[in-house]
Hints:
Blueprint: H1 2-26
Amino acid sequence: MADGYLEKHQQDYEARKEAYLRKKRHLPQIGRNLQRPDDEAL
């Protein structure tokens, strides 16, 4: 019983992790393409 319990939770974890990573890949990247001004003193 313990082995089945652990395997079930491991499978659930892997499925949640995969769904999270799949969703994360499709989210827009915020703040990655910021352009700095030519004059750093501004």
